[in-house]
Amino acid sequence: MNLDVRSDDNCHLWAEQSGSGPPLVLCHGGPGLWDYLDPVARLLDDRARTIRWDQRGCGRSQRRGPYSVARFVADLDAVRDQLAGPRMALLGHSWGAHLALRYTIEHPERVSHLIYVSGTGIDPERGWHPHYKRNLRLRLGHHLDRWEALSARTRTPEEDREQAVLQWSADFADHGTALRHAEGMATPWLGINYDCNQAINAEVKQELSNSEMAVQCRALDLPVLIIDGTEDIRPRWAVDSLHQALTNSQRVSLAGSGHLPWVENPHDFRRTVTTFLTQHSRQTLSQVHREPPDPR
């Protein structure tokens, strides 16, 4: 079901929901991309009412700014308020994992569970990006020359899509299926918002260098699941400090999968997420039942 969410500054945000059960809101990566998490929704929609949305300026949402982390947190809160209700489970992928974490830090009472998929952590000192760039070039193999040629010039829309497909192919562990999976991500092609990408990435870099996110993460007491693919070209040690800072977290690495683990290891991805949601929902319900009655 396609839906229209209005932000508090009247920006139209595309959203879609499916399935039944407790609300689970999905945050796509990028920044500057559109929702590509329909396969995740289909894996989980017998256990949750999944809600997907295109971030402001991206995909089917209204193409307008401002592009800032605070603005995207407010937009996510509008999605929660209008579609999910007072409390939701939250799953974010890549940049969307950082957005979901930031939202949870600011509104912990509105999040029941946080699922952090293929994020890049909170520690700016260890410098994961040079490792990513080196691994990207290695994974591209014989496509490297074409990718570099496209990256170095102004591209037509067709070339923009080609460059993205080649780059995204490196996010999959299996070379035999990587291009096909990347083509699927780029279909339909809704155009990358590079202004959004540059603004958000610059702010996140500055935010991590100046903020005390580790301290803020230690204050969270809600359950967090961190999921990594063992073959992700973004080094997974970048997430170590986040895992250590979270007091109620578990971390699962899915074998044989890259940056989108639900694509290459859907069985274990579904099992891990549904087990986490079910287990912690029961614990939360048990805690509620143990609370003393309100003496009114």
UniProtKB/TrEMBL annotation:
It comes from Micromonospora globbae. It comes from the Bacteria. Pfam families: Abhydrolase_1. Belongs to the peptidase S33 family. SUPFAM superfamilies: alpha/beta-Hydrolases. GO terms for molecular function: hydrolase activity. This is Alpha/beta hydrolase. Residues 22-266 form the AB hydrolase-1 domain. Keywords: Hydrolase.
